[in-house]
Predict the 3D structure of the following.
Amino acid sequence: MDSHYAEVPENQSALAPVDLPIDVKPEQLSLQDPRAVLSLLEADQVVAAKHRTHFGRMNLSFGTKTLLWALRVYVVAMMVIVLISVYQVIHAAH
Amino acid sequence: MDAPDKNPSLLAGQTAHPTTQSAVASAAAPELIGLVTHEDVDRARDRWEVARARSKGGAKKFGGVRLLWLLVGPGVLVFLGENDAPSMLSYSADGSRYGVGFFIPFVVLTFIMGFIVQEMTVRLGAVTHRGHAELIFDRFGKFWGFFAMGDLIFGNFLTLVTEFIGVRAGLGFFGVRPAIAVGGALVIVVAAITTGRYWTWERITLSLAVFNGLFIPAAILARPDWHSVGHAMLTWMPFPGGGRYEILLLILATIGATVTPWMLFFQQSAVVDKGMQPRDINAGRFDTLLGALLASVFAIAAILATVPLFHHGINAADFQAAQFAEALEPLIGHTGAALFALGIFEAGIVAAIAISTSSAYAFGEVMQTGHSLNRPLRDAWPFYLTLFGSACAAAALVLIPHFPLEFVVLTVNVIAVLAMPPALAFLLLLVNDAEVMGEHVNGFWANVAGVAVTVLLIIAGLGFGLATVFPKWLGG
């Protein structure tokens, strides 16, 4: 089975998994049953779960911040150089 | 990897954790059961197909093939999408200006670089089920997130414009009027997205992307000297002669034809939308490798198709897409030129679909609105509006008389390369983040390769910068 619904934790709030027979064709599969849908998806793959949970902020070290700022300055400087380059090309063409 | 989640996310508060636990077995299941959406149902249907193929894979002769068929998609699409109009134009410029030589193996190297970074997005998407933009905002905050988004949206829009230039130029070879060519392309983009199903969208786009292979018969009609091709692959020679600044610009444009920020955002979001899970990572790697292989072969074919221009001393310095096809016609015949023009059209249309989808995914993730091709139009209209709106705006610009099309084509790949190092920094930080990736964090060699690609791109960018500001240093 694709999802690991055999590994139900000992938690009373967890639902009993739907035992989906693998021979059933997708068109015959009753995805009207939400438990069948949840059986096929991972816990953090369900849209409602993703909306409610987020990965928290990473602690950015001084080195990481310096790297990100250096790369930001690099991009801005390079964009200025692209403009110079384009000006040179257009100027040369005319 | 398969251990039950000790700290189910919904009960833990607002912090997500990497988990492979089934939703129905999670502590949050009673709450989730009433919140299942149309998007979840469609994704579950796809997962059911994968589960059946995986279950029967060992018993059936082609079971493994069916599993791969189901899981292939984002990787092939991202690489064939990146073989877009400006990229094919860059490859054509390589072939027409320098013939068979350095650029043939160099293109292979750029696709290896592309594979290294795109493989990381597969893992990020399959493990976290979050798109790239969403993860950057979650982990780095809005300040850095908006910088990343700014680079993406700016680069995507410029690239999208060049795709419609490719569409216009490709069909222009056959005498199709620009408004009809661009309007027809928009109809195809809309037809692909209105299916309301990721799977259908992916298969339609893949079937269009296959036509990137049109450059192969065009190359064969150009009668390449295979001995020279083999020699170039082994020796990287002859190295291009002439103006070093021009060579540097072409090297940068060729890298930008393979490694760009939109690819990171697109593939990760597509992996999530496809519903891939950690156990699919190897299939995702295969998908990415297949895409890189196909795209590198087609890219080399574009180079070889235009080599006759080099042999006949035709100056292609200022050529645009249609002009390449027209110039090739007396050399490789009408069929070859027509295939080349159709290839440019195809490159433009597939990339227009992929890049506008990439922008829409990122917008939806940042604005926390629905952002899935599995959602019906009424449920995710901001997502579809972004997708369609960006395509319409880019198409409209191409139709403006005297719009500096050449300016955009010239700079778009270069800008992509220059914007790539910060995008790679975010990627590497995320893929090394154990809180996000769990056991799927980068290994030592993946980090070495990722850092090497980043450093190479920075060096190429700095070289371009120095050559622009101090042209005499390079004899420019």
About this structure: Chain B touches chain A through 85 residues (CB under 8 Å). The longest helix of chain B spans residues 321-367. Residues 100 and 136 of chain B are 41 Å apart (CA to CA). Chain B has one domain: 41-53+64-469.
